[in-house]
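Morning. Coffee machine broken again, so started the prediction first thing and wrote up yesterday's gels while waiting. Chain of 384 residues, entered below exactly as on the submission form.
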Amino acid sequence: MTLILLSASPGEWRTALLDEDERLAAFHLERPGRPDGLGDLHRARVTALAPAMAGAFLAMAGGETGFLPESAVGAAKQPIARAISEGQYLAVRVTRAAQGGKGPRLTARLTPAEAARVAAAPAGGPALIARGPVAALRLARAHPEAMLRTDSAPLAARLRAALGPARVALSHAPVFDEAIEAELDLLAGPEVPLPGGGRLLIHPTPALTAIDVDAGSIAGTRDPEAQLRLNGAAVAEAARQIRLRSLAGAILLDVAGLTAKRRATLAGPLAAALAPDPLARLLGLGPLGLFEIQRQRIHPPLHELLGWPLSPLSQGLAALRRAAREAAARPGRRWALRAAPAVLTALADLPGALEEAAAALGTPLQLLVEPGRSGAEIEERPHG
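Came back before lunch.
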């Protein structure tokens, strides 16, 4: 049976889907103080028509600008200048989160309930009417057979209200064990070891993501079947990493060695590995011998959220997570966060992060600035 795990820590929610073999099948990172906005309902104002782009730009709450394609306006597609006009207010929903320097993608095709909810909101300028569902709810609706387990009492109550009490269990211990935590640590870096040797090297760029198969010691073998086995494992793991990391856009996969004819035999296994991911599709084997994959952009990719390398905010939130675990294991102690100025600034700028840390620790967290330090460390402080 599939299982959804939701782990809450100061400033972050981490949601994982485990398949029937208890293997990580999907992962979502959310920062509730700075949500990505997917599924949010807005009242937005048309600021500029863009016929050349077949759409329009809309002003949203908080000063953000979204893009509305003409294909997402009304029941029948028509030129954008005929469908809407500048200055008009529209009820819209976010269908793609802002990412890669581009604003959110919008649709004006709402359900009757969504349209009624926007219409019932107080009159005024651009406004956020309702937040979209959190990742745990999206996964629960996509996998109705899955049970959900969380280590957060407030989130358990919220999810029980939406899914029913029988489907949501509250854990008094962290729901992510050491094996899951170790795998999540791998998602923050470019290297993924392969079973039996070799590794994947993942290199995101603004234009595309390149995934390279490094055969390691197998590269020197004279056994062509060993190389084929390695690459078979590599294409399966590449498809899994693409989904876990929310990679999107153009993705190129270069397998290790193999003739063009032998590379072509991997197209079927790669397509099968990508099949459970509705956002991804294999375009084929290109003239350079690279597998070309296209994945729809919905959420920001994980490397944008975490930073590449880890951003000061990600370093600080990881330290707060460690502090919360230490405090749960050893209650009644005082803790301090020793960090670079950029880390403390990033934490202070994320709404709720430091307040949630103080609540988890049961005492205010002492912040110690160390200009020469890189990253952040948590340490126990003496009483008195």
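The chain has a mean pLDDT of 91. Going to sketch it on the whiteboard this afternoon.
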